[in-house]
Design brief:
The chain contains three helices and 18 strands. The chain is mostly beta strands and 221 residues long.
Amino acid sequence: MIYKYSEIKPLWHTLTENQQNNVIDQLSSSGLKDEIQQLNYIPGSMVDNIDIELSLFKWVKVNTAPSNWSGEYILVSSDDRQIANQDLANHYMECGDIVIINGTIEEDAVEDAGGKIFTIGNQKFIQSGTYSGKWSYSISYIDGNDSRKFLKYSSSGLITSGSLGSTNEGYWYIGFSSGKLIIANIYNTTTQLRFYNGHIQQIANPSSSYHNLSLFSLQQV
């Protein structure tokens, strides 16, 4: 990603030595070596607006449920190294290849793969049923027409998308069972999201072998 040095400067103490050296090398190659203050390797204010190419963040696999799932994520099949990268169509979402290293994905790799960014929010408390006493969440993304679409359960038992509405079709329980991520629709809790044959779909009563989706969140590394 491209940053202004003024954006990187407040985070300098959090960067790894390799990241700091990367910044210094880029400034030096721009003919600004004399302006680098060698004692602490932080360039002076005159170079604050210089463009720096640096990866400050990575997408990191979520292995335990947070107290609140609200936030932005990518949806990945870690086993098959595939990322959701297409709008929902014909009740499933197509995926593309992605490189995963030690449970992390480079920020630029997600962008290059056209990965969809999913927003989890709009909490609703589950009053009864399989996940009674827990919270459910809406899951949405921006489609190719710059419109926000919410993943929903449809009467056919398959996944669909549209406006959130006021009923439970657009709300999902998100959690872990035996280390496997579960994303189950609250309108019909027997249906869950899974990765299968190159795409993400919804299936009723999946076996544990179908619990093969992972959520990754963007974190500073």
